[in-house]
Amino acid sequence: MRDLVLVHGAWHGAWCWRRVLPLLADAGARAVTVSLTGVGEKAHLLGPAVTVATHVADVVAAVRAEECRDAVLVGHSYGGVPVTAAADVLGDAVGPLVYVDAVVPAPGECWSSLSPPETAAARRATIAATGALPPPPASAFGLTGGDAAWVDRRQTPQPGGVYDDPVDFSLPRWLARSRTFLDCTTPPLPTIDPSRARVRSQPGWDVVELATGRDPMVSAPGLLAAELLRVAAG
């Protein structure tokens, strides 16, 4: 079974995979969690120097440190951006890509490129004023009760420098990889709609719908683990 390299999304940290890790381990899969600079336990490194290249370097360093080969590279939400570029750098150290309700960029695009115009304008204004993007309430991800409180306590501001920073990668090499998109539909997060449309119009995608919200590692860890294990075993 292939290793799984898990890259969290915006405002999150490696902590978000806590409920999934035991399920993967019980099935015999080795999982490597990546902490992106400026969020999670690296929130003290938040600053204007943090860019997409920083996060790509975080992923590349983690994969190389763990000596992965043909690993499944998993990106959640914004994590789809650094995962896409990191795969290009890593070559055969990673194999299949899994986008968990994630941003799916094209070469030269930014995270902002796939945001609705009104969302992009509001986020740019916030970044200009504060240098970062404050986290939305976990209820926006379909979480309620204790799950929402757990995520709300742990979320941290997202570095503003990653929002309009373009991602560079070889499209032919990326298209040659196995690619799975896990579409979280209950409720669907509107800012992921452009990526949902892209994966359904672009050849080569395995699209799987999960009847849960944007944070399946919290709301439906069993469903998510099953899909990750399926790809890892393929």
Describe the structure.
The protein has nine helices and eight strands. It is an alpha/beta fold and 234 residues long. It has one domain (4-233): Rossmann fold (3-Layer(aba) Sandwich). α2 (52-65) crosses α3 (80-90). The protein is globular, with a radius of gyration of 16 Å. The chain starts with a strand and ends with a helix.
CATH superfamily: Alpha/Beta hydrolase fold, catalytic domain
pLDDT averaged residue by residue: 97
C-alpha Rg (nearest Å)? 16 Å
**Assembly level:** single chain
Strand coverage percent: 15-25%
Q: How many strands appear in the DSSP assignment?
A: 8
How many helix segments? 9
**Percent helix range:** 25-40%
User: N-to-C SSE series?
Assistant: EHEHEHEHEHEHEHEHH
Lay out the secondary structure:
Elements: E1 4-7, H1 21-26, E2 31-34, H2 52-65, E3 71-76, H3 80-90, E4 94-100, H4 117-130, E5 132-133, H5 145-154, E6 158-159, H6 171-175, E7 179-184, H7 193-201, E8 205-210, H8 216-219, H9 221-233
Parallel strand pairs: 1-2, 1-3, 3-4, 4-7, 7-8
Antiparallel strand pairs: 5-6
Helix pairs in contact: 2-3
